[in-house]
Amino acid sequence: MGMAGLGLLLFFAVMAISAPSLTPYDPQYTMQLASSRAKPEWLDPRLPRNTLIISDPGFSSTRSLEEWTIFEEGSSAVSWSDQEGYPGIPLIEEGSGLGSFQLTSNSLRGNSTILMEKAFHYQSSPPRRFSVHMAYKVIVEGNATWNIQVWVRQTDNVVLGFWNSSTKSGSVDWSIPKPEIDTNDASLRFRLFKDILADATRVFPVQGNYTLVIMVQTNVESGTVNIYLDDVSARIWGEAFGYLGTDNYGRDIFTQLMHGSRISIIIGTFSAIIAVLLGLIVGLVSGYIGGWLDELLMRSNDILLTIPGLPFLIVLTAVIGPSIWSVIILIGLLGWMGIARLIRSQVLSLKSKAFVEASRASGAGTWHIIRKHLIPNVMTMAYTQLALTVPGAIVTEAALSFLGLGDPFLQTWGKMLHDVQYYGAVAEWWWAVPPGICIASLSMAFVLIGYALDDIFNPRLRKR
Amino acid sequence: MEIWESAEGDHMGLRSYIAKRVVFAAITLFIIMTLNFVIFRLMPGNPIALIADVVRLRPEQVRRLYELFGLDRPIWDQYVQYIVQTLQGFYGYSFYTQRPVSQDIMERLPNTLLLVGTSTVLSIIIGMVVGIVAAAKRGSAIDISAISFGFLGNSVPVFWLGLILLLVLGVNLKWFPLRGTTSVPAPREPLALVADILWHMTLPTLALVIILFGGYALVMRAAMIDVLTEDYITLARAKGMDERTVLYKHALRNAMLPMVTVISLAFGFLLTGALLTETVFSWYGLGRYIWDAILKHDYPALQGIFFIISAMVVAANLIADLIYAVLDPRVRYD
């Protein structure tokens, strides 16, 4: 029994230690890894995976133009530029360095049209989300107008116009379409399908060949227009991701599960240590010193035992504000009562033992007796109680987090279950089931170890 | 004469025992009220400053609000007022529903009590039966599963078990409704209404009973094993009594005592378990009220709920103490 407990504990310890190397993501802050609430990858091979349609979005070399099919009409020239490159939005996104797609239209007056086409084959079930990222820069010298559009041509040659810069005349420094081209944008969905509830399943409804088209039009009266494009990437958001899918923010559930073990172990052990220390102190003082102090401590013990623990914790954390340390301390402060009683009864029986009385008779002080005779004799009980207090602490923390009173900066197992409840995701069993199994097995590990310790230290119970 | 005296002494013992327990309950309740008062004054800032900041009140309006809520008076005055109002059943106004908290609570309390009552009774009955069978047949499959369920009850979060039952029996098999206390609209006929409520409360009750009965079974089992080693049981068996009579007539009565203590101690656990389970099933009770109050930062509601729950637990403990005194005459002379 004890070995099973140790084995389970070892499993979770390994999980806690290796969590960062098992998954590259942050459980809380790595968002949008895939569509929100993507399913696990092993569930259905036909579910769309994260797909990047353009293989070299940064136009890092002149060969990057090869993946595009380019149709020119009118007086313009297409080339690869090593002079310009999208610098990215400082602190938020990285640019792709130098290198961009350059399009030059010059003085021969009149219209010119360039179509950049990237054909691709789509062979999964319809995705819910599709987005195109693109950065552009326009330098107008002279008198000219320009226009950039982004389309998707469907299998049946129906063209969906995702973005239209509208016809403009001035120069523009590096910028990106606003709002971003993303089917998560309701105005885009309404413009495309006259239905704000539609999603990317209407963009890729069947399997087949699709084409991403970027159309650039210029109308030059005099002078030249230089248009640079960079960071052109199109993404079909995966409906399947990782071992356990993603949550509402597209965060990896497997990562959350792995990292959850760290927080649960820390909270469980630390608050149990606080509870046992308090129980030890109160039990020793109350049992050995006795008198009015004993009376006072035991009456407050009775009262604290009567106050329902979780509601009290709810009120306290709601007022104090949830953080991992306040949760640990509060759970510890409300968990010592039973331990104190056990220690006290043990101390009372030790107190009348011959060796303690002999020590007292030979003039040993209270502190000496407590330190040399009592503490060593109650330590086995303290260890057992430590193991048996951890499960309660783990489950209590889970309950607090479940109610929304967990540390807002930590994704615990309880918080995962809160999210399941909050977003009504019960049916997504790969999300709802694992955290509970982890909470239960980690608690169980400590229960088993506790009972095994009890068996070892109190052999007379073994016959039961 | 001697007999008369001892009966008189017994009576006095019971009376002073009851008085002691009632006084203890009253003190506990008083301390809970005090805690409630202190905790909500530890909060950073005060609610009126918060309101005034958001809606930009004029100074005289702010002063009027302070007067209205009694916040301009000295803290002792506020404390006395709080105690008096709490005892009168007034817990302030909910920030969210804008109604008296007591009204909100009274609306939901019967549903919570229905759930708590049903699952307490069921889990005690099942726990006792399983415990007795486990004690009578040590090492059997029932014994082992009783022990396992006893351990699991402390490790498995009840709200998670609720989610799983909802997933399997509600979402997948569609045997039970996914949420609520009654169907919407609720059936008109009384019989149909009762059936509807029972149908809705099956899953939350099941979750609570699965979590709780193991603990009762373990206690019952240990108590039975203790009793079964007593001399009078050996005597009864030696007299040739059949095993059923020994178990139910002789052993069970004496093994009941620890159960009463455990039932009262477990009541707080059960109540909080019920609150957590309610949130999962959107049961229209106090648990769902807590969930909403936390999300909406509705402090008066939390305060009121905490008081009501504590009062219920204190009352349950008092009742258990009294039952114990009736069952076991020795306790009166403690």
The fraction of residues assigned to DSSP E strands of chain B is under 5%
Helix coverage percent of chain B: over 70%
Could you say which structural class the secondary elements and strand pairing of chain B correspond to? mainly alpha
- Tertiary shape of chain B: globular
Number of domains of chain A: 2
Helix count of chain B equals: 12
- Measured distance between first and last alpha carbons of chain A: 15 Å
What's the main sheet of chain A like?
Answer: 10 strands, antiparallel
The gist of it:
The complex is a heterodimer of chains A (464) and B (334). Chain A has 464 residues and is of the alpha+beta class.
Characterise this structure.
The complex is a heterodimer of chains A (464) and B (334). Chain A is elongated. The model of chain A has no long low-confidence stretch (mean pLDDT 88). In chain A, helix 3 (253-289) packs antiparallel against helix 9 (366-402). Chain A has two domains: 51-236, Galactose-binding domain-like (Jelly Rolls); 252-463, MetI-like fold (Orthogonal Bundle), CATH 1.10.3720. By secondary structure, chain A is an alpha+beta fold. Chain A is 44% helix and 21% strand. With 334 residues, chain B is an all-alpha fold. Helix content of chain B is 79%, strand content 0%. Chain B is built from twelve helices and no strands. Chain B has helices at 2-42, 47-55, 59-69, 75-87, 101-136, 141-155, 158-172, 190-228, 231-238, 243-281, 286-295, 299-327. Chain B is globular and about 90 Å long.
Task: Please outline the helices and strands.
The complex is a heterodimer of chains A (464) and B (334).
Chain A: H1 2-22, E1 51-52, E2 69-73, E3 76-81, E4 100-105, E5 110-122, E6 130-153, E7 159-164, E8 172-175, E9 181-182, H2 186-193, E10 208-236, H3 253-289, H4 291-306, H5 309-320, H6 324-333, H7 337-351, H8 354-361, H9 366-402, H10 413-422, H11 429-457
Antiparallel strand pairs in A: 1-10, 2-5, 3-4, 4-10, 5-10, 6-7, 6-8, 6-9, 6-10
Helix pairs in contact in A: 1-3, 1-11, 3-4, 3-6, 3-7, 3-9, 3-11, 4-7, 5-6, 7-9, 8-9, 9-10, 9-11, 10-11
Chain B: H1 2-42, H2 47-55, H3 59-69, H4 75-87, H5 101-136, H6 141-155, H7 158-172, H8 190-228, H9 231-238, H10 243-281, H11 286-295, H12 299-327
Helix pairs in contact in B: 1-4, 1-12, 5-6, 5-8, 5-10, 6-8, 7-8, 7-10, 8-10, 9-10, 10-11, 10-12, 11-12
